[in-house]
Amino acid sequence: MKESVIGKIVVIVLAVTGLVSLYDWLVTAPPFMLEERVPGMDKADLAAVPEGSRFGPDGELIRSAGVPAEFKGAWPCFRGKDLDNISKDQFTPIPSGSGFPLCWAIEVGEGFAGAVILDGCVYMLDYDREKQADALRCLSLADGAEIWRYSYPVSIKRNHGMSRTIPYVTDDFVVAIGPKCHVTCLHSQTGDKKWSLDLVYAYNAEVPPWYAGQCPLVDQGRVILAPGGTALIIAVDSDTGETIWETPNPHDWKMTHSSVMPMDFHGKRTYVYCAGGGVVGVSAEDGRIVWEYPGWKINIANVPSPLIIGEDRIFLSGGYNAGSVMLRLEEKEGQITPTVLFRMEPERFGSTQHTPILYEGHIYGVRPDGQLVCFDPDGNEKWTSTGANKFGLGPYMIAGSMIYVMNDTGLLSRVEATSEAFRLVDQTQLLQGHDSWTPIAFASGRMILRDLTRMICVEAAVK
Known about the structure:
The protein has two helices and 34 strands. About 5% of the residues lie in helices and about 40% in strands.
């Protein structure tokens, strides 16, 4: 009985205390302001971005003791100057079986971000895990010493690598896209900032799985980017970063890992892009959509870029059982229509990561089973690599009439670039890590390669 009375007294005291506290809270201003939760505003990407800004976080420039090498060769962007992954340099290749002398090696943040080369400098986008910052770095082609770096804070978690894009460099500027779609443009010699743009904030872009893989295109004094979001493709002034035009996105197609490629069709410049819901061609003049093809989309990851063949053909390839397709553009009464010429099942040809190469009238690439393949533009197979000659997800490019193709573990093979037969020249183990998937850069007789955590520069030409 006493316990029951005591319990009632305790309940009454707690109730009175609660009422007093509530009255005090209602008549007294709270020590903080309560704000309504707005959907989308809790994105981690925007934590470092001031409200109303489209320019991304501020960065820091650090200059170091490195100096440019006395080389004038260039590999200025993804797939090289002509966007075909073919070096036009005249050089004498290293003799078969003699190996590739190492020029320098550096440790890099986890990822697959490749290098570009111009006037003795090497440019790459890196990630500094200790400082939690993207870092656009300029190195000497001579010895790998850092000349400058520009970094800005951004929190990135490991997701099978971090940085995986390739900058575009000119005599005046270098522009790069970070893992979370921050675009940064700097003076290429000094590293001083020209402009920046946050595609997530400005265009509601959605960061792709495994982070951004799109590489910027520079064309006609403009930087061409594909945000997805509220604008499918945009053109910005390369000097100021001001928007010149925006392509509408009526189907809400998302950003992919594929990069925009230029194409001249019937004398008119267009840009071709493999978006999340299909392929699109837009006018270089004003960004208007001139044709669409919704029949090509890869649900998991669309990575290879369109391969332009002549003035009216586009070869599309992908992984994840997508295979490949050849499109032809036809114009009737001012209307451009893409039609399918043929399809190839993945066991004949597809590509999970790398864009195939058109060389002397034939297409070369590595299909999902790891075989290097040569076929003509009508889809007729000429040869495949045989036996143990499989290359996984490694990169490949052509220089000096040879295909340089690397496997996942850093074994570099040289193969004759001929449609007659598969002819292996030699093989050299250049990297000892894993996931050697990064596109190769080739200039001034030197070749830059990397795996997940290490970048190297080797001599590929006889001096």
